[in-house]
Structures are given as structure tokens and as C-alpha cells.
Design brief:
- This protein has a six-stranded parallel β-sheet.
- The protein has five helices and six strands, in the order E-E-H-E-E-H-E-H-E-H-H.
- Helix content is 24%, strand content 17%.
- The chain is globular and about 50 Å long.
- It has one domain: Rossmann fold.
């Protein structure tokens, strides 16, 4: 997985815009797809090798379905960019990274210093997850 990146919607030109999951099935050349709430991330599993970017939309702060989509994709072996877009707040960053997101494009710009603090607040974790960090209990048994 790539290093976690702080991105904003205007950071890069849209050269290869993400298509919807429904439209993706009809296109043979799409390399970017956008998952909306209610879409099933498992529909993309046979196509993960050809995707360079998967955006997961968080239309409102309290909608957590995107976390599950990210975990499904990473556990299935998706190694491309996984970007959280929409109503993403600084206090979600650590959980987003744990589920497998490596970039995000929030609707409202976040302070980079606040993002750095949020991403580095806890040096140790307790559960295995999609970000590859070793849980603290596993570190105790290292030789």
C-alpha cells in the first residue's frame, strides 16, 4: 500500500475520471471507479488488477459503509490507490488508514498539520487491519 497522502479535489487534473460501478461493467478501458453508498465493492473484485484508482464516496460524515468497502478491497488484494472522497473529517483519518485508504479528497480542505497529528496520534495499534501495521500484542512476541 502506498504512503497515506493528503489530497484535495483540486490537487490534480482529472485526466481519467472515475466512473460509477454500474458504468464500469460496461466499459473496457476504465482504470478508475467510484463506489457510492449502496454499491457492492465485491462487484469489482474480478477487475482489481486493471484499476489504478478506486474512490469511495462518503456523502455524509455518519455514513460508514465506505469503511467496509475499503476493507473488502484491500483484503482481496487491491494494491492501487484507494481514495476517500466527500464528507471526510480530520478525526476520521486514522480509521480510514486502518481500513486501507491511502489518500483522500475531502469536500472541505483540512489543515495539513491537523491531518499529520491525526495520522500519527497512536504509535501502536491493537488489531490487525488493512494498513499492515503490526498489533502491539504481536510485537511482544518478536524474537
Amino acid at each position: 500500500m502506498a504512503e497515506f497522502q493528503l489530497r484535495f479535489r483540486d490537487d490534480e487534473p482529472v485526466a481519467d475520471p472515475a466512473v460509477t460501478v454500474d458504468a464500469f461493467g460496461e466499459q473496457t478501458n476504465a482504470a478508475a471507479v467510484r463506489i457510492e453508498p449502496g454499491d457492492d465493492a465485491r462487484d469489482l473484485l474480478p477487475h482489481l488488477r486493471r484499476l489504478r484508482l478506486i474512490e469511495v464516496n462518503f456523502p455524509v460524515f455518519g455514513d460508514g459503509r465506505g469503511y467496509s468497502a475499503a476493507r473488502i478491497l484491500r483484503e482481496a488484494g487491491y494494491g492501487g490507490e484507494l481514495r476517500a472522497v466527500g464528507d471526510v473529517a480530520v478525526d476520521q483519518l486514522a480509521a480510514l488508514r486502518r481500513c486501507g485508504f491511502d489518500s483522500f479528497a475531502p469536500d472541505v480542505a483540512l489543515d495539513p498539520a491537523d491531518a499529520d497529528i491525526a495520522l500519527n496520534r497512536w504509535p501502536d495499534v491493537y488489531q490487525p487491519s488493512a494498513d499492515g501495521r503490526r498489533p502491539i500484542w504481536a510485537k511482544r512476541h518478536e524474537s
